[in-house]
Amino acid sequence: xxxxxxxxxxxxxxxxxxxxxxxxxxxxxxxxxxxxxxxxxxxxxxxxxxxxxxxxxxxxxxxxxxxxxxxxxxxxxxxxxxxxxxxxxxxxxxxxxxxxxxxxxxxxxxxxxxxxxxxxxxxxxxxxxxxxxxxxxxxxxxxxxxxxxxxxxxxxxxxxxxxxxxxxxxxxxxxxxxxxxxxxxxxxxxxxxxxxxxxxxxxxxxxxxxxxxxxxxxxxxxxxxxxxxxxxxxxxxxxxxxxxxxxxxxxxxxxxxxxxxxxxxxxxxxxxxxxxxxxxxxxxxxxxxxxxxxxxxxxxxxxxxxxxxxxxxxxxxxxxxxxxxxxxxxxxxxxxxxxxxxxxxxxxxxxxxxxxxxxxxxxxxxxxxxxxxxxxxxxxxxxxxxxxxxxxxxxxxxxxxxxxxxxxxxxxxxxxxxxxxxxxxxxxxxxxxxxxxxxxxxxxxxxxxxxxxxxxxxxxxxxxxxxxxxxxxxxxxxxxxxxxxxxxxxxxxxxxxxxxxxxxxxxxxxxxxxxxxxxxxxxxxxxxxxxxxxxxxxxxxxxxxxxxxxxxxxxxxxxxxxxxxxxxxxxxxxxxxxxxxxxxxxxxxxxxxxxxxxxxxxxxxxxxxxxxxxxxxxxxxxxxxxxxxxxxxxxxxxxxxxxxxxxxxxxxxxxxxxxxxxxxxxxxxxxxxxxxxxxxxxxxxxxxxxxxxxxxxxxxxxxxxxxxxxxxxxxxxxxxxxxxxxxxxxxxxxxxxxxxxxxxxxxxxxxxxxxxxxxxxxxxxxxxxxxxxxxxxxxxxxxxxxxxxxxxxxxxxxxxxxxxxxxxxxxxxxxxxxxxxxxxxxxxxx
Length: 830
Prior knowledge:
Strand content: 15-25%
Number of strands: 30
Number of helices: 23
């Protein structure tokens, strides 16, 4: 039988004897054995703080985001084996999809957030700069850096994959190494995913470690800078939080615990309305998904008192139709509890509920391809609390399974009051089409809920459901739910980051933050800043423009073009009592005129205007005033580019517009999309002529088996194919892969050195056409000249390529740039 290995200090380790058997929840068979006996937890934490922290924290946020994406893609390719293991935990295919692919999706989400919103630096500037001196020579701001420690992540048994991935998505992106401790029952599934994460080679050494089984005394060794993320029962969480090592060392502690979540049926949602049907469906789903083993499941069903009977009948019928049994059967819609031990605990909680409330539904389901004796199966159960303001057991005890309690209310005040009696929940939902009822109820219950989900006919088709935490929204809740905050978009990273105030001069803050601060030194040069590629732009690069005198005609013409006939621009007789002395130039005209002064008209690396931020107008500009612009590179943001887009980044430029008295009249930040410098050489006849002077008969390839002459004759042929002088009759790439191949022309990845040419029979090179190398050079250069002339005269032409299919002028140019660079590098010509 498989004994699960632990991954500690970069090594796979088998425990030394404290065996814990892990059983198949469906049929009771032994699946694996966990054992953590003998692990040196103190060494594991130290390894994470040193090796792991050094490697992760030195990476940029952008690079960590790219790492998450690569890891998610790697795991997604191997998902089938995870599903096979997930079924053994009692999860259906739908349950497993949420756990497995939902977990990977969290990585994808955070990767996307990093690429769009985080800097290409190991630190993150948080918030605006504060001017804290009269003359602006002393400024302050905040930066966020990875907390110098290791994160111990203790997960619950209900989501063996998602539970790990959603915590790792934020900790890894923040640059903090983690020790993952999955709940023991389904740890064999966590172990399988973890093994592949390590085998991928994508993560730096020390980034993650794994403890599969009992956690031992691992928390005795946490210290200042470390963090603990706990998901499980509130009682266990409180014990861990009060440990001396945690409380005395200021260890960060995040808890996501018990949650008596509720769902409220609106007063308007009577039988026959879409909302009533949606409510029944949502409650059934939340009771039966993962067999009710969800921290977000609906535990309290709050309905208008006159609809209790209707809800009971409709919900009973819906639950009767839910097939329970072996997850491998296509009929099954609800699987088992994760194990017999957990089922015993669940039964104890059911007995507590039964002591004070009435059991009004107890399903007598026949199992599909399974039996109650060997598997950990339980049918759904619904209780009725007729006096929910007097009988408190429904608001105190969470039965972690397919169990929920129905209770009545009279008005929105009572509905909100009952929702809050759960003393803190992860999520509460309201199903209603009455906006006033929803607004009034949600305001009142908001203080005790981490998330409020509203469902009605308008959003039902696209709704993700009551029980689905989303990476871009906070997952956590106050009070009984633990007070934790996980995910929530970029806010989820803050738990792992140290916020530090930075004070100093504008030059010092610019040097530290890599963001230009007003008052810092500007760097002027004869080269226009818009002529620089993304990599070449330096923070502080500046341009002072010529002046432009604003005229009455400018103001009138802009009014006519823009249709902005606001009186201050057009009617001098209406200015009494205003801040203006005479008709004033439009603010957007000032910005437009500023752009006209600072842009470079020639085609260059700047691709497009990407946006405008923080535009402010400080003084009016009248006809006769002369404006001058100071343009300064303020910040650079790396950008992930997909598909057929030029690799690029975003540059933020500080635009300062002054009048003839050097008074600032307008300040704004404009964003431009700036191309990155291509690593490939341009197709240029003159440049190639010079490079080929270094190519001789004695030149040997750095890889491959081509001679110099064979290489040039090959390049000549591809040039001729691309303009129709030679005819390509078929593309060797399957149709379904063509789009991917064509997209690859736009990225900056070089052609692989071992790429097999599909048009060569048995890999044999064609016979030489020319007498010697010099003659081959002449013909190759002639083909380059013909290629350039052809596409100047035929810009709309398209031709078939052996590998990339039908290519237009742009794609053909990109192909030749990569292809020629590949072979010129082969012979040391680049």
